[in-house]
Amino acid sequence: PSANTTELIAGGEAIAAKMTELTGYTIEVTVPTNYAALIEAMGSGNAQIGWLPTVPYIVAYEKGYATVGLVTLRSGADHYAFEFIVHQARVDDGTFTSFYDAATSANTADAATALAQFADKRPCYTDPLSSSGYLVPAGYLATSGISTKAGAWVQGHPTVVKSVYLSPKGEICDFGTVYVDARTAVTTDFPDVNDQVAIAFVSDPIIPNDTVSFVAGLDPTIRQNLVDALVEIASTDEGLQLLKDGGYSIGGLASVDDSFYDEYRVYLESIHFDINSYK
Questions:
Q1: How do the domains of the chain map onto residue ranges?
Q2: 8 A C-beta contact, residue 185 and residue 28
Q3: pLDDT tens per residue across span 40-83
Q4: Is the C-alpha dihedral spanning 146, 205, 187, 52 positive or negative?
């Protein structure tokens, strides 16, 4: 969520109060130090409901701790895309080609054609547990048969953009992978970033949004009542404001089951992701 701990607790308690009103259940709000702690809390039975991003959810599911109930919606969509970026100087000198037309917001070539240029090049990635900053882009390349050099871990999407910006000759890396459009995050430091950093290709929306997950073994009736309450909250402007105040700027919630993540798992498997690496 995009809020600090104090805001999360205050906002979470307002959401909990509404859920209590709708279900009659007593809901206690806690904010773990990180998602790994939330996973373990669900595993030990100390947490029954968890707002988990995709990777922590996959880890919790594979450990047998949790199952998904809902996925967040943004602009009506339950998946989002990522993009490959390169320095404009590398486009100008013929090293790379931009296969993305900003005027039409569309790619001008298929993935196989666009991705081939990244073979044996060095990527900038955010961190090993970021969906759009590493896991899915790396899996996307791997499933397309593209082998790159070892990545530079630079931490954070804005830092990936800055690293590409500062690599007109590939000094830090040759290309980067970020959410769409991460360049907007660095315009204060680099006002000409849109001129210096080019979008080479944008994926289809293939990364699932965050989840609302429930502890494994939760009574099915209780689980369904909680799902129904959250869906009802997210169906009104007042409820969406409650969720926003709790750190979740979303447009709704939709019911899903674990098969929703099958395609995502293909990308994780292609890069040999180990759930035990999540800490």
A1: 5-77+207-277, 82-202
A2: no
A3: 999 999 999 999 999 999 999 999 999 999 999 998 999 999 99
A4: negative
Amino acid at 186: V
Would you say the C-alpha torsion 143, 140, 61, 44 has a positive or negative sign? positive
Closest of 98, 13, 5, 68 to residue 223, by C-alpha = 68
Side chain identity, residue 183: R
Instruction: Give the 3-state secondary structure of residue 214.
Output: strand
Q: Does 82-202 match 5-77+207-277 at the fold level?
A: yes
Sign of CA pseudo-dihedral 208, 214, 218, 223: negative
Task: Indicate the Cα dihedral angle 8, 14, 18, 19, nearest 10°.
Answer: 30
Three-class SS of residue 10? helix
The amino acid that residue 265 corresponds to is: R
Position of tokens 């979303």?
250
- Amino acid present at 189: D
* Residue 254: both structure tokens together: 């939709």
CATH of domain 82-202: 3.40.190.10
CATH fold, domain 5-77+207-277, is D-Maltodextrin-Binding Protein; domain 2 (3.40.190)
